[in-house]
């Protein structure tokens, strides 16, 4: 993950088949548009098994940040490393790569990102 770190990075675990994940995507798109120029990066990590459905979801939801998946469903090595038990799951990392918050949504997430980027 280190190569994609900005001032703040959101590691977002999701999947094309996950309704709550897809419902959250417009919020992530808005957050990225507002804060990317200030140093926010997002890395999407998919728990998909079907590459076509995964790529279609990225395009349809207009997710313009970096995406990775080993197409291994719950056996996704990065998800195992982060001990992800359910999705959507988000981890907010500071510039040093340390997890400073997790599973924030909506206004709570926006406020945390704004605060971290203002440091």
Automatic annotation (TrEMBL):
Output the superkingdom of the source species. Bacteria
Q: What is this protein called?
A: TlpA family protein disulfide reductase
Cell compartments where the protein resides = Cell envelope
Q: A single GO CC term, please? A: cell envelope
Q: What is one GO biological process annotated to this record?
A: cytochrome complex assembly
Alphabetical UniProt keywords: Cytochrome c-type biogenesis, Disulfide bond, Redox-active center
Lineage per the UniProt record: Bacteria, Pseudomonadati, Bacteroidota, Flavobacteriia, Flavobacteriales
Q: Which InterPro entries match?
A: Thioredoxin-like_fold, Thioredoxin-like_sf, Thioredoxin_CS, Thioredoxin_domain, Thioredoxin_ResA/DsbE_sf
Keyword Disulfide bond, does the record have it?
A: yes
Naturally occurring in which organism (per UniProt): Flavobacterium franklandianum
What region holds the Thioredoxin domain? 1-119
Q: What is the predominant subcellular site recorded for this chain?
A: other
CDD domains under this entry?
TlpA_like_family
